[in-house]
Amino acid sequence: MNFRGASRANASSGMGVADHSKNTFMELQRKKVHRYVIFKIDEKKKEVVVEKTGEPAESYEDFTASLPDNDCRYAVYDFDFVTSENCQKSKIFFIACLPFRVEHGIPMSIQYDDELIWSPSTSRIRARMLYATSKERIRRELDGIHYEVQATDPTEMDLEVIRDRAN
């Protein structure tokens, strides 16, 4: 048997995840050296790579401003908050583009509970499908995610949505 290219992604498993992407996530999770990490799919390399990281002092607004208006991305955001018992907590949110359904010829997003999805309605259908087929693979590789919340426009991932999910 020939196993050459066995680590390559295929349509059923989605894109591979670069080691640098996994290591950057672990830096966010364990060392708190990043507030957020934005990932994109590199179609030539057939893997998910780091596009941008945010410094620990950056705000949620800095994070949302870093997301492209017209394209899909995956991201993780480390949200710090204080509970009603006055305890400092941190929860990691995963943001991803998911599949969409088509109703009357119009692409529609699928709504899932507890998921933060960045899939602007203006993004290319090919990009949305590519991100959709790769979502589970990257999600499995990034162990330690607390929540996923869906958003296809900025109002669906408002800071209040994040606060509500974290509490």
From TrEMBL:
SMART domains: ADF
A Pfam family assignment: Cofilin_ADF
Record bears the keyword Transcription regulation: no
Keywords tagged on the record: Actin-binding
Coiled-coil spans in chain: none
Taxonomy, superkingdom: Eukaryota
Domain ADF-H: 14-167
Family: Belongs to the actin-binding proteins ADF family.
Protein name: ADF-H domain-containing protein
